[in-house]
Design brief:
With 423 residues, the protein is α/β, with parallel strands linked by helices. The chain has two domains: 84 residues, 2-Layer Sandwich (Alpha-Beta Plaits); 321 residues, Rossmann fold. β7, α7 and β8 form a beta-alpha-beta unit. α7 runs parallel beside α12, α8 runs parallel beside α10 and α12 packs parallel to α15.
Length: 423
């Protein structure tokens, strides 16, 4: 099978495997169109495929990135490539969770002591869901919305447990531990967006639909931050990766997007997609050795290293990601398979860059409470310029370890200088 220039390398390999398989008839693809009229182009393409009696099944229209997701037979690819409005055909790849006394270590406690706790800021967690844990629902319910792109359920739940832990890293208030285990922004609100299944995996197209929903509902729900503690091996440059394109669109719409770097370290060039997206805040993991001193912190061995696919500088910074205690989703997949990780009745211990990212998302919520005028790029600069250097290479630590003591003071001073000005 000869490769067409519109077909990504990963899709070409998948189509070749499909042709030689006795069981697999189709591959999952994302077709990117030229111009803005992607719905019209998709309708035109479907008519062309129907006329050729090709085997395909439409999955979703991805308006955010001007694309169309479908299951198609390898024979369809030639017809799709011949359509003049098709710019690129990419494999709809599967992502997974990046699973392998954090908040004091990044200086969040000193910020909270001055009355800043993320109140009024909404963080959307795109993950395996969120369970209605008391640390998020008492004394007031701060899970303000829930959207399920996997099973279409309406009430918050988490059949894996990962998303609940991540949500607690952002906004757990320590209700069940009398304040002992709290997230970075215990006053922030959570929007749970389930894009990963019970096993902690989900396709690009499903995650993109989740991002698209957040962008559309950002003003209605007050969403300012998205957290993506998920990823896959980066096989394409960010410009040819549909999930990276969606992340870029979200940032350009005004949303801060924090992404886990991945758990494929210490290999060079192991940053996951969508962490390779330049506009995202990509976060690696440190081991804080259970102390609040930065001087003894180390880059976690599992934390993915840069550079990003295509040569960009990543990660952007690092944050604690080893033995993080957060919320337990009772009877979830992780709860059943890792019973030794339970901490008391309500909490759970996990490691991975999955948890470094929401700690950073919570930190962004603290900055936005102090100064709601901050843009995604300004927040990224504040976090990077005030990070604590661990004296490691840029490809390991990025700008350094998250340090909210200095970043928060800079946000306050910026707020004073912009008072009275319009956006």
């Amino acid at each position: 099978m000869k490769k067409h220039h519109k077909v990504s390398a990963s899709l070409h390999r998948a189509a070749c495997r499909c042709r030689s398989s006795a069981k697999q008839r189709t591959v999952r693809v994302i077709v990117r169109f030229t111009g803005a009229a992607s719905k019209r182009h998709a309708s035109s393409l479907k008519r062309k495929l129907d006329q050729g009696n090709h085997h395909f099944k439409e999955k979703a229209h991805l308006q955010l990135i001007g694309s169309w997701a479908a299951h198609v037979s390898p024979a369809c690819l030639k017809t799709i490539c011949s359509h003049r409005s098709v710019a690129k055909i990419m494999l709809d790849r599967k992502n997974r969770i990046n699973l392998n006394v954090a908040t004091p270590a990044v200086g969040a406690a000193s910020v909270r002591s001055r009355g800043t706790n993320g109140r009024g800021v909404t963080v959307a967690v795109l993950d395996t869901g969120v369970a209605p844990h008391p640390d998020l629902t008492k004394p007031n319910n701060r899970i303000i919305a829930f959207k399920d792109f996997v099973n279409n359920r309406t009430k918050p739940y988490d059949d894996n447990g990962h998303g609940t832990h991540v949500s607690g890293d952002v906004a757990g208030n320590g209700y069940s531990s009398k304040g002992k285990y709290r997230g970075t922004a215990p006053g922030a609100r959570i929007v749970g967006v389930k894009v990963l299944d019970q096993q902690g995996s989900g396709y690009d197209s499903t995650i993109i639909k989740g991002i698209e929903w957040c962008v559309k509902n950002r003003k209605r729900l007050g969403i300012r931050i998205l957290n993506l503690s998920l990823g896959k091996q980066a096989l394409e440059n960010y410009s040819n990766d549909p999930l990276c394109q969606a992340v870029s669109k979200a940032v350009r719409s005004g949303l801060v997007v924090t992404v886990s770097a991945g758990n494929d370290g210490p290999a060079k060039g192991s940053i996951d997609s969508p962490g390779i997206t330049p506009l995202a805040i990509t976060v690696g993991a440190t081991n804080d050795r259970n102390t609040i001193r930065e001087s003894d912190d180390q880059i976690a061995d599992f934390s993915s290293r840069g550079p990003a696919k295509g040569g960009g500088v990543k990660p952007d910074l690092v944050a604690p990601g080893t033995n993080i205690i957060s919320l337990r989703a009772d009877s979830s997949e992780l709860d059943r398979t890792l019973p030794g990780n339970r901490v008391g009745k309500r909490y759970f211990r996990l490691s991975g860059t999955s948890f470094s990212s929401p700690i950073t998302a919570g930190s962004a919520a603290l900055l936005l409470q102090q100064n709601s005028r901050l843009t995604p790029s300004q927040i990224k600069r504040l976090l990077q310029r005030n990070a604590y250097s661990l004296k490691q290479s840029v490809r390991a630590q990025g700008a350094g370890e998250l340090n909210m003591r200095f970043a928060a003071s800079k946000a306050r001073s910026r707020n004073q200088s912009t008072k009275g000005k319009t956006r």
